[in-house]
Design brief:
Keywords: Membrane, Transmembrane, Transmembrane helix. With about 270 residues, the protein is mostly helical. The protein contains 16 helices and no strands. It is globular, with a radius of gyration of 19 Å. The relative contact order is 0.16. About 15% of the residues have low confidence.
Length: about 270
């Protein structure tokens, strides 16, 4: 089994689907409020090319499945941090993945099993990461998206919504330093969330975030009109892929222009399960 593919895919992917479910459960999706879903679009990570990050060699081919799994994890700082911070969760994910592989499950089934567990850890860390780390996390995602859209609107759409038309190989489209920067920023955010300056979310912060995002949403509704609903139904965006990418980037551009503490509050609010 291609464990690097599985591990990276477990770190990405299902954010939009999960968050849309949360918004629907809370009853936040309406004619205008559906645009808030765009707050999560940039959080979706595309699978990074395995060959780009982890070259194949004859030694790897001789490893057992568990050795290949551990070797893949060692090369990704984010997973090393999860192992340090959540050893029980890490062991559970590892054992589950290896057991499923031994039982003959497909890579996709393994990915589907471990994704929610890894996602829950990462989204929880955003809640306690310092403001600067939270904002840097989103800025790194924005950088990737902007660079990909320069190549084509279709590529940008696939990057944001891989489940609709299929994803892209982001590592082949982005400079190596941009990809590495993204990985570094994620790892720094995870570590800072456990550090001495970790953040404590308050009810006041949540309320302020809801208030701060409303003018941004209203501005986008006025600018894009009915096209705003495409953020809730990206499968209907055929021919308007560029519009969807523009809405997403305009929303985050406006959020990131706010003072750091306010921008971080909106980001935390957007990925909160509360």
């Amino acid at each position: 089994m291609n464990w690097t593919h599985v591990i990276l895919a477990g770190y990405i992917g299902a954010v939009i689907a999960i968050v849309v479910g949360i918004f629907r459960k809370k009853g936040w999706i309406g004619k205008t409020s559906a645009v808030i879903i765009a707050l999560l679009a940039i959080v979706v990570w595309n699978i990074i090319d395995v060959k780009y990050l982890i070259p194949r060699d004859s030694v790897t081919q001789q490893m057992t499945e568990s050795e290949k799994f551990d070797a893949a994890m060692e090369r990704l700082p984010l997973y090393q941090i999860i192992r340090e911070q959540e050893p029980e969760a890490w062991s559970r994910i590892r054992e589950q993945a290896l057991a499923m592989q031994k039982a003959g499950e497909s890579e996709q089934n393994v990915i589907d099993a471990i994704q929610p567990q890894i996602l829950a850890i990462q989204m929880a860390r955003l809640q306690t990461a310092p403001d600067a780390n939270v904002v840097a996390f989103m800025q790194a995602n924005m950088q990737q998206t902007a660079l990909i859209q320069k190549q084509s609107d279709d590529a940008c759409f696939r990057f944001l919504f891989p489940a609709v038309k299929g994803g892209i190989n982001a590592a082949r489209m982005l400079p190596a330093d941009v990809t590495q920067h993204r990985l570094d920023v994620d790892a720094e955010m995870m570590r800072a969330a456990y550090g001495p300056n970790k953040h404590q979310v308050t009810p006041q912060e949540r309320q302020q975030a809801m208030q701060e995002v409303q003018p941004i949403v209203q501005k986008l509704v006025q600018q894009y009109g009915q096209d705003i609903t495409l953020m809730n139904e990206p499968q209907k965006a055929a021919g308007k892929e560029g519009v969807v990418c523009n809405i997403t980037q305009d929303l985050w551009r406006n959020v990131l222009q706010l003072p750091v503490n306010k921008a971080a509050g909106i980001i935390r609010y957007s990925v909160s399960a509360e």
